[in-house]
Amino acid sequence: MSDDGAGEPVLRVEGLKAHYDSTDGFLDRLLGRSRRVKAVDGVSLELREGETLGIVGESGCGKTTLARSVLRLIEPTAGSVYHRGEDLTALSSAELRDRRRDLQYVFQDPHSSLDPRLTAGDVVGEPLDVHGLATGAEREDRVRELLETVGLSPSHANRYPHEFSGGQRQRLGIARALAVDPEVIVCDEPVSALDASVQAQVLNLLADLQAEFGLSYVFIAHDLRVIEHVSDRVAVMYLGEFVERGPTEAVFDPPYHPYTEALLSAIPEPDPLWEGDGIRLDGTVPSPIDPPSGCRFHTRCPRVIPDADYDLRPETWRTVMDLTLRAAEADDAASLTAARPDPTEAPRETFDGLVREEFDLPDTLPDAAAEEALGEAIDALHDEGIGAAAALLDSAFTSPCERHRPPEYELGGDHGIACLRYDDGFDEEAGTFADGSV
């Protein structure tokens, strides 16, 4: 890994977007009901020579789409990708093929990424053929050399992919990427499908190759232990955006963004007596078709900022927001609680208790105005139905995190974070945010 944080980037991505149409069927298209999935939505990054940039996040956050869009395996919707100052998005197919000698990809699944009809020698030699780099005896020598470089025997050249173990297949994929002497390799979760002991071997191999050939890696993973081990810098991704980026030590100790903090808290310790103190993220990741307004993490954030009009602690505000969000998505009042039969048939006092118990709300909110608004919403839920209650909750309880989309705030030392808690308008002592600041 590189120790030098300076220097001109070998790869630079600016405002990259990858949206695609998921319109379901002829009727949706006929009625104009377009469904655009915002898999990657305005991502910028830099990769410097000889370093490893780790990209981490939950499954479905857009990591793989980002990686494939960078190399134009998927055509980006907008934005630019520069390699040594040249915009890859402006290149023709022929020009891009030549450029791919410098930019290679290691896929996540070492089984499906290898053609089962080709021998190992042909898998590794195919890039040499495509780019016209070697033929005949020279090609055979180069294939044997590459197999040895990644820890395989030259005698394996006549074997087929199914005759290799998972770790050996991934080594074969790495050898294929090395065949054209690239500058940059995008590693898309290259060890996630491997056993732990094999993971370590492949990671050590990648580190040795980087030191020997001066490679730069974009390393994608959902395992933070792997990212911490291999990366010089880290970018944390959530729902198509980066929420935090910076040097590895700055991101990991201490974590600053609530999402990063939650991810790190989920890493188990190698101690049989460890009971864990993880941060629970309630709810599911929102759909990239219709991402939340403001900060996209606010629907699950345990440190969401309360409305300044109420005197509520963040943990209490979180429970009120959970009720608000569930009410907006629910079909009827019964679906809000686990109680059966229909809780709306219960007396008002009993129904109130069922709702508060379901969402871990206190018997009485400590703020009188907030309690009055909540009581009115529960009354409406009981008497008028889910629509009336959802409207009251939405108008009464809206976080600044929902109203404002946070920019990236610079914390120094190339460390940036997209969270309103780092805006000048956030009052740390009061736990409130001045809406006019952003």
Automatic annotation (TrEMBL):
InterPro entries listed in its UniProt record: AAA+_ATPase, ABC_transp_ATP-bind, ABC_transporter-like_ATP-bd, ABC_transporter-like_CS, Oligopep_ABC_C, P-loop_NTPase
ABC transporter domain segment(s): 11-264
Molecular function in Gene Ontology: ATP binding; ATP hydrolysis activity
Keyword rRNA-binding attributed: no
Pfam families in UniProt: ABC_tran (PF00005), oligo_HPY (PF08352)
One GO-annotated biological process of the protein: transmembrane transport
Gene3D superfamilies, per database record: P-loop containing nucleotide triphosphate hydrolases
Sorted UniProt keywords: ATP-binding, Nucleotide-binding, Transport
Family statement drawn from the similarity comment of this UniProt entry: Belongs to the ABC transporter superfamily.
Protein name: Peptide/nickel transport system ATP-binding protein
Record organism: Halorubrum aquaticum
